[in-house]
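Study this chain:
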Amino acid sequence: MKKSIVFKGVFPALITPFKADGSIDLEGLKESVKYYMSVGCAGVCFSGSSGEHAFLSREERIEGIKACREVIGNGYVIAGAGALTTAETLELVKDVKNAGADAALVLSPIGNTTADGMVKHYETLGTVGIPLLLYNHPAATGITIDIDMFDRLIQIPNVVGMKETSGSLPFLAEILRRYSTDEITLFTGCDDLTLPSCAIGLKAIILATANVAPKQVIDIMDLVNEGKIEEAQKIYWNLAPLTRVIGDEANFPSLLKKATEMMGHAAGDPRLPMIPATAEQEAEIEEALKIAGLK
């Protein structure tokens, strides 16, 4: 089952930079995308949870996708398009396609639905004619895509793969046992599982950490592919404190934005109800960046 497009490599789960007046900083976004491509990223993922998707207007999402597309070069643009209902999600997927993205990352609808409902949801979205990536994030949606559901959903023609953020390595392993990463796309979205995910065979990553340390994340993947596990381990160990700090779920992506800003990229404060990092948290980020060899 060879899908129409197969993604591989590292994709930063982009933050959305804001200016002091709270408006989206499109020029800052473009500069960040150009930098990530210059260090070897395969593409970018815009308007996900790291990018404050829920706090962006429809117009801002479209503008952001177009900005990424403008400077991505030969890379890929993946854009988030999740919403509560199929009808609303359908409109967002259309926006993603019309703005020039290569694929839509579609978070499962939040709340209760059946496996049959999930199939109908993605079949409906598939009519738009853009590659779709499932987004398994049960902590955020209350819906778990298990192996049986995945087997059904991956049969939908325009569903080309999945971003897996449940944190289950056995689930990833079961998918890898059944499907080839040369035929479908399987991303990990768990920053703390970068090394083990690569070690069991994943070839694609969408991570928040790649906003701050893209080269290190790329190096982990490359070193694992070359069989240099001990070298990959050292990078992974040194990134661990940073991954922990910026992944603060209570105020995400506030600390991620601050860390990205400390690395010289446009960021700005998050939108309310998220609040900026405190001075104490900034000091913790600074220390984590030093441990990672970034400062």
